[in-house]
Amino acid sequence: MDEEHLHDDLRVFKDRNFFQLRLRSFFTVYLLLGLFFVLIITLFAVSLSRVSAISSKLNEVQPERKQNFSDRDFLLFPCGPGSREWEYFNGKCYYFSLTRMSWYKAKAQCEEMHSQLVIINSYAKQNFVMFRTRNERFWIGLTDENSEGEWEWIDGTDYKTTFTFWKEGEPNNSNNNEDCAHVWISGKWNDVYCTYECYYICEKPLPN
Ligand SMILES: *[C@@H]1O[C@H](CO)[C@@H](O)[C@H](O)[C@H]1NC(C)=O
Ligand SMILES: *[C@@H]1O[C@H](CO)[C@@H](O)[C@H](O)[C@H]1NC(C)=O
Ligand SMILES: [Ca+2]
Ligand SMILES: [Ca+2]
Q1: Calpha distance 167→191 (Å, rounded)
Q2: How far is the C-alpha of 26 from the C-alpha of 120, rounded, in Å?
Q3: The CATH homologous superfamily of the domain defined by 79-205
Q4: TM spans, by residue (predicted)?
Q5: Which of 15, 42, 113, 133 has its CA 20 to 30 A from that of 1?
Q6: pLDDT in tens, 163-198
Q7: Do 117 and 139 form a contact (C-beta atoms < 8 A)?
């Protein structure tokens, strides 16, 4: 015996000791991780409750704002805080479409938005439109489809006594088939067939 046995016993004892040490260090790591998660979750819960408190406060404010426009809203969004795509110019609101369609569809689209195709009745308005349309084609509320050569603004504005801005040589009723007007290069007006597809401009008064 016994030299050798003793040696073996000693080794078993050493191994066990080592195993226990490792176990303890694992336990510590898990404990720290656990604490860390608890901390994170607490922080998350606190911030969540703050956000929901703020949003419920906002919800309380909302109905008041819908009932009447505060002066601040009116300055920021004169065409209504709920319709930021409408641009304000000189007492009216304008929408420049992002899709192309025929003159008839464009007219209907404006009506659906409680507005109508734009009436360009002054050089100031022409300038505003010209600046925004940048040589792109946009329908306006002008047509001679009822009677060839008798141009009419869709709101009844008298054509003969009002501002015009036709391109040189237009309207030319090309192919006897051009009865709707759009703005084009430098914002100048051209007549084209009404089923042509281009962008459009709607106009509406300020909300009450
Ligand atoms: C708009 O609301 C404010 C309070 O939020 C009120 O004092 C004011 O009289 C209202 N204005 C109109 C025109 O209803
Ligand atoms: C008439 O107008 C159309 C655009 O609507 C243009 O393409 C055409 O060249 C014009 N024709 C003449 C003869 O100016
Ligand atoms: Ca025509
Ligand atoms: Ca033409």
Answers
A1: 9
A2: 79
A3: Mannose-Binding Protein A, subunit A (3.10.100.10)
A4: 27-48
A5: 15
A6: 999 999 999 999 999 999 999 999 999 999 999 999
A7: yes
